[in-house]
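The protein record minuted underneath.
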Amino acid sequence: MSRYFANIYQSLSSIWVGMNITLKHLFTPAITLQYPEERWEMPERARNQLFNDIDDCIGCDQCARACPVDCIYIETEKTDDDLGLTSKGTKKCLKVLRFDIDMSLCCYCGLCTYPCPTECLVMTPNYESSVYDRTDLLYKYAKPWEYDQKSEPAPESDDVPDAEDTPDEEAKEAASAD
């Protein structure tokens, strides 16, 4: 008989504890964030999307070697040309022909950012990177066409078409005549 009353007491006390917690949460204000209009402030050292400042990259390949999942692809070419200096004063000796980061493979560990001597590879606070196609998560940072433009001479004025001879100008003139 005493066991019967002990069970009743235990069940009523557990109901009381549960209702007490429910009542406390009933009167606290909601902290729901209306996402598209409002965004969470990320902590200072949050590890999100990678970004490479290709103008400061010297192509040393240390970030690709440090990456545990091999999501950074770098191709360089050694040159004797003067490629300039980085923002920290480091001389560039390699042409960076390819610097791609496959964010679909990235595990956001941040290990690739630490060995970079010019600190051009950083984690950004951008955490919104959803796409419809997985190939859109391959970010290409290299600009190999800039090396070609520096080495080629400027085109002569005879080779460049006049602005009034372009098809767009002719179409605009035809539209304005109508």
In short: Confidence is low (pLDDT under 50) at residues 151-178. The longest helix spans residues 2-26.
